[in-house]
Amino acid sequence: MANKMLQSLKFPGLSDTYLIPLMQDFAPVYDSTATYAVGDYCTHDNKFYVCTTAISTAEAWTVGRWNQISVADIATAIGADVDDLKEALNQLGLSVVNGALCVTYNV
Fold first, then answer.
1. Residue 51 has what pLDDT?
2. Strand partners, 47
3. What is the domain extent for residue 22?
4. How far apart are CA 87 and CA 104, in angstroms?
């Protein structure tokens, strides 16, 4: 899902509203029957949000618990997560090459 979103970012003029359907796995529509942790993502009224206050009991949408973000913000977060994962794998002597997990070792 993230790859489709990042590929779409290469085309100027695409709005957050256009990209909402591509982002449903990453930032699902807000669910008033769910709970959320700080840092969780959602969409509401065709806008992207990140949770700023934990929601431990399901509730109706409360804008004060969320911060609106842009597609660029999400792309940056995904990139940081990927970079962190690459670094963690590298520290374990692992890497991903052409989609395959590889072990790095010295002979």
1. 95
2. 44
3. 2-103
4. 13
